[in-house]
Description:
With 512 residues, this protein is of the alpha/beta class. 35% of the residues lie in helices and 20% in strands.
Amino acid sequence: MQSLSGxxxxxxxxxxxxxxxxxxxxxxxxxxxxxxxxxxxxxxxSRLEREGFRFDMGPSWYLMPDVFERFFGAFDRRPGDYYExxxxxxxxxxxxxxxxxxxSADDASGGTxxxxxxxxxxxxxxxxxxxIFEEYESGAGEALERYLEKSRENYExxxxxxxxxxxxxxxxxxxxxxxxxARGLSLLGSMQDHVEDYFDHPKxxxxxxxxxxxxxxxxxxxxxxxxxxxxxxxxxxxxYPEGGIGSVVDAVADLGxxxxxxxxxxxxxxxxxxREGAFLLETSDGPVTADLVVSNADYAHTEQDxxxxxxxxxxxxxxxxxxxxxxxxxxxxxxxxxxxxxxxxTLVLPTEWDDHFEQIFDDPQWxxxxxxxxxxxxxxxDDVAPVGHSTLFVLVPIAPGLxxxxxxxxxxxxRILADLAAHTGAELRDRIVLEERFCVxxxxxxxxxxxxxxxxxxxxxxxxxxxxxxxxxxxxxxxYFVGGDTTPGIGMPMCLISGELTAEAVLADYGx
Length: 512
Ligand SMILES: Cc1cc2nc3c(=O)[nH]c(=O)nc-3n(C[C@H](O)[C@H](O)[C@H](O)COP(=O)(O)OP(=O)(O)OC[C@H]3O[C@@H](n4cnc5c(N)ncnc54)[C@H](O)[C@@H]3O)c2cc1C
């Protein structure tokens, strides 16, 4: 194995990508220091604790357990050395907010009761899910099996050849071996077209498409390759780490400490000075020098705010022309009593959701009929809420860059709580004992994210694989990037892998 012995590396930011690459680089012998501007480690996976309620502020779905196994395995550890996992059953519940038109269309088609204004639990039992699909549409159970087979194939080939292996240049894709592997993958069409090949019923299309929200895209702007997410969801399962996602942040940080990484919080980096033998970083607390720098801060922030103009690989027009993943309106709620209508993960979807996506991507405005997600971790974990209470958060994806004044947040909060009560029966309004909100401007200020995007660059076709910004800076030798804006992309598992890919690039350039 190559070594980085003697090299000092500063990692700017402690999201999953920063934590992961710090572990790989320290393991290779580098002297690694992580500088985080916020008061805690974890980046978008921050924690909020108030009056006995504990919230994961960002990610809450622990997907792709295989990726976490692989990550810890690289250091001869297992996730179980740090945290216990529970397989959620059901994985999640979906409530459909049926419109009058949808209801009469279902009635006219002689739909079963299932198809008229309803909810669905997706469980680890595939036969049960197939039976539910069959109730909506004759033949859909068998179609789901075929769909998932394709999804499994895409996952296996995609992970091996396009995710774990970095392919930053076009010529990497004309490699005959890769081309052979890629043949047969439904790569380039839209998810919407792909899904229509299998299912007619719009609700079934939604069930297999909602995971695109994890990628920050819509069914019309995300390539069909990402149907691999259904394998992730239906076959690999939805898990919960005891203590919440914060336990996973602690685990990766603890692993880092075991490998010799040092962490400093409340330490914003304000400037990266060009390389003259060593980097000089201006921080809130004095200068820091390093041989090499890896930035886990958002790519646009690092380039536009920390580097001088002549050292930037991209100009302001580039960032302006990108498609960003949604921001979010988040309500963190401590509630008296249980919420029997909801499961650990619940999705509430309008049956015609094109309008919501349009109001995110094409005509940015607060959605009229939002699709949203509710998480109730206290269903699975007694320690996240005081006795007799529930910890709950509501996430509404909205367009980045929207104005989010206190008055708008108030109005929207009332609207969402009314919508939740109307469509799920969960009436929370008279029993909320703790409430915090987080929205577009908070994403921008807490994480320096462009226009307050919650997730970074969306996975559109033009922003997938080699079309995402690279791990190596285009202009500055010794400067690297890691995290959701680069490859492979958005989500905790992808950011862990990004850490591995960035470390590989550093080792290829400086290792001996
Ligand atoms: C609301 C929400 C829900 C999500 N749900 C899921 C989910 O269920 N499952 C899932 O897998 N993923 C989910 N994600 C996505 C996932 O959280 C992210 O893709 C991933 O955590 C991002 O990691 P990252 O490596 O890009 O770093 P980030 O988390 O973006 O961290 C970057 C860090 O850099 C720091 N930083 C920025 N500028 C500076 C500076 N100048 N100096 C020092 N530090 C700086 C920031 O403070 C931050 O800590 C969700 C995200 C959000 C926001």
